[in-house]
Write a structure and sequence with these properties.
Elements lengths: L1 E2 L2 E6 L2 E6 L7 E5 L4 E6 L5 E5 L2 E7 L5 E8 L5 E8 L2 E8 L2 E10 L2 E2 L7 E3 L3 E6 L5 E6 L4 E8 L6 E9 L17 E9 L4 E6 L13 E2 L12 E6 L5 E6 L5 E9 L6 E11 L1 E6 L5 E6 L13 E8 L2 E4 L5 E3 L5 E6 L5 E6 L4 E7 L6 E3 L9 E3 L4 E6 L5 E6 L9 E8 L6 E3 L3 E3 L4 E6 L5 E6 L4 E5 L15 E3 L6 E6 L5 E6 L10 E6 L12 E7 L4 E9 L2
Antiparallel strand pairs: 1-2, 2-3, 3-4, 5-6, 6-7, 7-8, 9-10, 10-11, 11-12, 11-13, 14-15, 15-16, 16-17, 18-19, 18-48, 19-20, 21-22, 22-23, 23-24, 25-26, 26-27, 27-28, 27-29, 30-31, 31-32, 32-33, 32-34, 35-36, 36-37, 37-38, 37-39, 40-41, 41-42, 42-43, 44-45, 45-46, 46-47
């Protein structure tokens, strides 16, 4: 550990302070402290030390002399492992009888406050902890499961709190390296835009402040697929490791494909594509949080009637990012008609599909050993599905994994209002229970996005409006949101999809092309104000970019700042 001009060493006898001048460090003093495990210094040089029974804070005088400020006990039953400075406090992690536990302590000037909330539990064995460069995320390395647990740091009036964010798959580590502190690399952010009319995917660099730069070369999908009937990509998803992008390649009333693109380390241009067959008219794509399984929804769209004749979901095993069909349980029948888009809960246990022509959501349990799908209730039917409004389209799950949200598009029929259906997710079996939905301010809601802390729900309507719903407690057992949204009047006419930058600070609205010119789509970038500034005036348009194509979906990569 290092402070301003000094080094700290932790040992059985306490904290040893060394000068950090040229040449070999010179010992200055030793501060007695028993049971030391790990420590971290903040930008001002204040020192925080984790021991077997508590967390201790120190200020540093000239010459490196440490002055104890105070200490706080550890959560009951915790065997501590690591500590990191982040935001305006400290995050510590360790292991308890239930698995990993991670807690946040507000701290300043060497003085530590007790954690404002109970520790967050996670499965596995904690080996190390670190914070992202900007202090918005905390990561815990999970030695027994070879992954990272990601937590979002949420500011609040009584101090910041941690919110469970995601499980990030890593490359397997040798057993001897499990105690090595984890590091997280900040990657440039990129917005990948799926353009169906030009059968291409374009990579827009996200620049400082959320504006978009000149896109890297667009990659034409029908030049790399196996079926000449393919008519362009309809959806895309990015692997948790950020190294591969998967796109479904639509084929109306015919067999489509799923195409894999290798991504560069800078999240910029896509590498050489590789395609394998999917089912009839594939739409939604999803990757499970462990990065082991890929799923594609085959809508079975029928060209002669404009409707669906059932639908299926294909499952693929991923090996070094490349998909191959499951050896068993490759194709799963859905209960409804015309499966549109897919979503997987943060734990990777359940998969959901919006059934456009069936006006319901199908729920499936994911077999952790082979990725195969079974109806959540055990039987394919309404017991494993949930009724939505008319023509459900986009489907998203909140970061806590408690609730699922579906935009009820209505398809321009006889509806007189728009809505978003909200469901509670049964943590035991994944079945859905209807919760309090919200009415939108205009018709035909289509795109959905939810903030990384679960406090804002964004709804794009094809009428051109954008609603923002908020709630005060994203960890609440109920999904109640305010029923009077903030309305953002953007410069778009046919809002089709939404995407959030990886840091959650910019919202991108896809304005789909309209007849008779099918080259007039665009992307509008909107900066998101802090949660304390929730008026419509707080949302500012910071850029608008012509795509010259029908933009149908966008996904963001990179970040962790």
């Amino acid at each position: 550990m290092a402070g301003p001009g000094i080094l700290y060493g932790l040992g059985a006898d306490g904290i040893t302070t060394f000068s950090a001048g040229s040449g070999m460090p010179a010992k200055l003093s030793t501060t007695a402290l028993s049971g030391t495990i790990a420590g971290a210094a903040d930008g001002a040089g204040d020192l925080y030390v984790l021991t077997s029974n508590g967390v201790y804070g120190y200020t540093v005088a000239s010459g490196g002399t440490l002055t104890a400020q105070n200490s706080q006990p550890l959560p009951s039953g915790l065997s501590p492992v690591g500590i990191t400075v982040t935001g305006n406090g400290l995050a510590i992690t360790g292991n308890a009888s239930s698995g990993i536990e991670t807690a946040y302590y507000p701290a300043s000037g060497g003085t530590i406050s007790g954690p404002s909330t109970t520790p967050i539990a996670g499965r596995g064995t904690a080996t190390a902890i670190t914070a992202s460069p900007g202090g918005h995320y905390v990561f815990v390395s999970n030695g027994s499961r070879a992954d990272l647990l990601a937590y979002a740091l949420s500011p609040g009036a009584s101090g910041a709190t941690l919110t469970s964010s995601a499980v990030l798959r890593t490359r397997l580590m040798p057993a001897a390296a499990l105690s090595v502190p984890v590091t997280v690399t900040l990657q440039p952010q990129t917005l990948y835009v799926v353009n169906q009319s030009t059968t291409s995917i374009a990579a827009y660099p996200i620049e400082s402040g959320g504006t978009l730069g000149t896109p890297a070369s667009a990659y034409t999908c029908n030049a790399c697929t196996t079926n000449i009937a393919d008519q362009g990509p309809s959806a895309a998803a990015i692997a948790p490791d950020g190294l591969h992008l998967y796109a479904s390649d639509w084929a109306q009333a015919g067999q489509g494909d799923v195409t894999t693109f290798a991504m560069t380390s800078a999240n910029g241009p896509l590498g050489a594509p590789s395609s394998i067959p999917a089912g009839q008219s594939p739409m939604g794509v999803a990757v499970d949080p462990s990065g082991r399984y890929l799923y594609v929804a085959n809508s079975h769209y029928d060209d002669s009637t404009g409707q669906s004749t059932g639908g299926t979901i294909d499952g693929y095993q991923l090996s070094q990012g490349m998909p191959s069909p499951f050896s068993t349980g490759y194709r799963t029948q859905v209960y409804g008609n015309y499966p549109m888009l897919l979503a997987i809960d943060p734990t990777g246990r359940f998969l959901y599909s919006s059934e456009f022509a069936g006006s319901l959501v199908d729920a499936f349990a994911i077999n952790p050993d082979n990725g195969s799908l079974t109806p959540a209730s055990g039987t394919l039917g309404m017991s494993s599905a949930a009724a939505t409004g008319t023509n459900p389209w986009t489907i998203v799950i909140g970061p806590s994994g408690r609730h699922l949200y579906v935009s009820d598009n209505g398809n321009g029929g006889s509806q007189t209002s728009g809505a978003v259906s909200i469901f509670s997710i049964n943590a035991q079996n994944g079945t859905l229970t209807s919760d309090n939905g919200v009415a939108t301010t205009d018709l035909k809601p289509l795109g959905l996005a939810i903030g990384p802390k679960g406090r804002r729900l964004y709804v794009a309507m094809q009428s051109g409006a954008l609603d923002v719903f908020v709630r005060q407690n994203p960890q609440s057992a109920t999904g109640t949101w305010n029923y009077t949204p903030t309305v953002i009047k953007g410069n778009f006419a046919n809002a089709y999809g939404l995407a959030l930058s990886a840091d959650g600070k910019t919202l991108y609205v896809l304005d789909d092309c309209t007849a008779p010119n099918y080259n007039n789509g665009s992307i509008q970038a909107i900066s998101i104000p802090s949660f304390s500034s929730m008026t419509g005036a707080g949302y500012a348009t910071i850029g608008q970019y012509a795509t010259h194509a029908c933009t149908v979906q966008a996904v963001a990569a990179g970040g962790f700042n």
